[in-house]
Amino acid sequence: MKIEIYGGGCEKCKATEANARKAVQDLGLKAEVIPVFDKAAAIKRGLTDTPALLIDGKLKIAGRIAETEEIKKLLKVEPH
Amino acid sequence: MSKSTDAKIADQIKPILSWILFALGLATIIYPRFSGHPLFPAYQYGNLTRFPWWQIPFVYLFSYATRAWGALLFAFTLGGLLVAFLPRERMKKAMSSGKVSAYFLAAALAPVLTVCSCAMIPIFGGLLISGVGLGPAITFLLMAPASNILALIFTFDLISWKIMVFRVVFSFFGAMAIGWIVSRTRAGKKVEEEYAGIEPLHAEDGRVFTFQEKSARSASEAWDLAQKVLGFLTIGVLVISYVEAYIPPTIVAKYLTGVRGVILGAVIGVPTYTPTLVEIFLIKAMLNIGMEPSAALAFLIGAPMASLPSMLAVSRVVGWKVVLQYAVLAVFVAAAAGFAYLAFVVTL
User: What phi and psi values does residue B320 have, to the nearest 5 degrees?
Assistant: First the structure.
């Protein structure tokens, strides 16, 4: 499983990354958390609101800090 | 368990607090317009040079702390409410609905859509790949910092309503004209082609927030914004105190007045990077020592539109050619605004 976080490297993006890592750790999953803090790369990917959280290539939450509990729910729904 | 009850109490207080502080900030701005004197006493320093040099920054900072806290409170809480309550997705969709209307909507919505430069480039990119192309995207990119709602509040509160009106009108039409021109150039067309085939992704979460949740979020956003701005602003004001105290008014009178003043005002903004809102405090100081309002207006439009750090960030997306084109045009728009002010209004 792959969790990508896109953003410009601002505080909100870092908070989202930290929450994602916490969610993965809490659930004991073998998921990769990949921060991509590059605005140009985000646009080329079609992302127009940051921070953006993608799970296995699908945009789940954009434009706000994703909370740890929310990410956990998303990860549980997602088939492995 | 005491921590979780504390957190619960905070959840209860936050939504109410954000509205109370917003109302208090609003009152401190509006009250003086009707009554002629401030709602809370403000400290006036008089002539700065009567203080020893080491006291000047503190006297100056203290004066602004008593004078501008209400406007700052209003600005931060309003910023938080805008982030939490505006239907951003709907607004973005509206901006990319038609080729011509996109210019107007980009210019009209930019002042409220981003209060933080953080979100500017993603929305710029969103417009770029939405099908309306580079023109409206650049309009948004220039209008957002040049006529940001927070900057306008401070321009109105610290400088004058006439300067604020000119700032809005010239950045509005200027940003549209620049966007349209740059999108017609060869470099502009190349950028459009580069970003043409990208499909915008849409979030799947679809979570709906209650009024309570939005209000609470606005408090957090306001606090974020305050932290981001206040550090730079404090340092900025400390430095600006020496500008007001020690730059000889004779030099200001020679260079920052008349036609020469407008041209210099429009150009010096490019290398002078001033963080959010600091530009207004700097201009206030310059006006105190003799800069003419026309030159000040040119600076207030040119500096945010074509500041080096933002140009650097944008060039990573669209390349240097497009950035240079819009920056040069922005300097012309800033100068045009200054000349219009010099010709028709003159005084603050």
Answer: -70, -30
Tokens encoding B220: 């957090």
List chain A residues with CB under 8 Å of B317: 39-40, 43
Helical (H) or strand (E) element with B152: helix B149-154
Neighbours of B90 (CB within 10 A): 9
Interacting residues of B321 by C-beta distance below 8 A, sequence separation 6+? B187
CA angle B326, B272, A41 (to 5 degrees): 50
Q: Is B108 on the interface with A (CB under 8 A)?
A: no
In chain B, DSSP finds a helix count (H) and a strand count (E) of: 16, 0
- Where residue A29 sits, what CATH number does that domain have? 3.40.30.10
- Cβ neighbors of A15 (< 8 A, separation 6 or more) are A51, A65
Q: Is there a catalytic annotation at residue A67?
A: no
What's the rounded Cα separation, in Å, for the pair A50 and A59? Answer: 11
Q: How does pLDDT run across B1-23, given as a tens digit for each residue?
A: 445 677 778 778 889 999 999 99
Which residue of chain A has the CA closest to B113?
A: A49
Residues B258 and B263: their CA atoms lie apart, in Å, by 9
What is the tally of structural domains in chain A? 1
Summarize pLDDT for B206-246 with one digit per residue, the tens: 678 899 999 999 999 999 899 989 999 999 999 999 999 99
Q: Per DSSP, what are the bridge partners of residue A35? A: A5
